[in-house]
Amino acid sequence: MRVTRASDYAIRVMIQLATLPKGERQSLPALARSTDVPVSFLAKILKSLSQAGLVLPRRGAIGGFELLPKGHRATMRDVIEAVEGPIILNTCLASRHACHRRLCCPAHPVWKKAQAALLAVLGTSPIAELAAAQKESASPT
Amino acid sequence: MRVTRASDYAIRVMIQLATLPKGERQSLPALARSTDVPVSFLAKILKSLSQAGLVLPRRGAIGGFELLPKGHRATMRDVIEAVEGPIILNTCLASRHACHRRLCCPAHPVWKKAQAALLAVLGTSPIAELAAAQKESASPT
User: Fold this and answer.
1) Overall pTM > 0.95
2) What is the pLDDT of residues B4-47, one digit of tens each?
């Protein structure tokens, strides 16, 4: 029951991109340096984030990656789900038909409550706010 | 970020054992039938539960498995941790030294909060209560 390394890295890179002034981009090697993520792995993660409409890849001499408006509004939950798919703590929460024991299983409501508690935190933690906190802690006092 | 099938099954079997009158036991094939878990997989799960001191295996003609006092007091968290080890949502929560970015990473406090929210639910859901709910729903009205 642990987040994948890809999601962890995706959150890092989204926070990094959200610290840039609006419309600015950062190259893949620069992003890799500032997030401590290997370039090849980061390229795959950025592909998922691009496909989810959170990040825009720009080619050319001053190419790189920038956040799209959807990325600016994204929460930690959105980023994880862009990389891993929907957060589902247990199979029985996937759909009504995922487990035939669902209706009589006393653990099912607990899983539902645990999932809601988890999503309540991750779904209300905007990347933009985390980036603002990072900028603040990095700025000289 | 999903619980393993082994943990899901472990919770099923713990609930089943907790529905038995105190001191009673159930054989492996009977447990497999009542939990819809394959016998060979269930045997491995029961080994983990025994090693964690939650369940007592008894050999012989009227052998089988019964809950130990620790198993009667166990929560869903205890059962999952008996099978998977400690619940750790992200590597940075494993120890102080697990991630060198921990102190400056704005996502770290969110992971900490998400983990606390998850554990608050799983750690306050006693197997004995779930078994009582199961018995109640199964009893004729």
Assistant:
1) no
2) 999 999 999 999 999 999 889 999 999 999 999 999 999 999 99
Q: Write the CATH number for B58.
A: 1.10.10.10
Interface residue A104 vs chain B (CB under 8 A): yes
- Measured between CB atoms, does A8 come within 8 Å of chain B? yes
Inside any domain, residue A114 = no
Q: What's the structural domain count of chain A?
A: 1
Closest CB to A101 among B2, B36, B120: B36
Residue A41 lies in a domain: yes
- Distance from C-alpha of B93 to C-alpha of B118, rounded to nearest angstrom: 13
Domain interval for residue B65: 5-86+126-138
Nearest to B118 among A114, A133, A137 (CB): A114
Q: How far is CA B63 from the centre of its chain?
A: 22
Which residues, other chains included, contact A18 with Cβ-Cβ below 8 Å and sequence gap of 6+? A67, A71, A72, A127, A128, A130, A131
DSSP code, position A21: P
Inspect the interface and report whether the beta carbons of B89 and A130 lie closer than 8 Å.
no
Q: Which residues of A touch B92 (CB under 8 A)?
A: 8
In a domain, A65, yes or no: yes
Q: What is the largest CA-CA distance in chain A?
A: 61
Contact B15 A107 (CB under 8 A): yes
Cα(B89)–Cα(B78) distance, integer angstroms: 16
Q: How many angstroms away from the CA of B95 is the closest CA of chain A?
A: 15
Of B26, B23, B43, whose CA–CA distance to B34 is shortest? B26
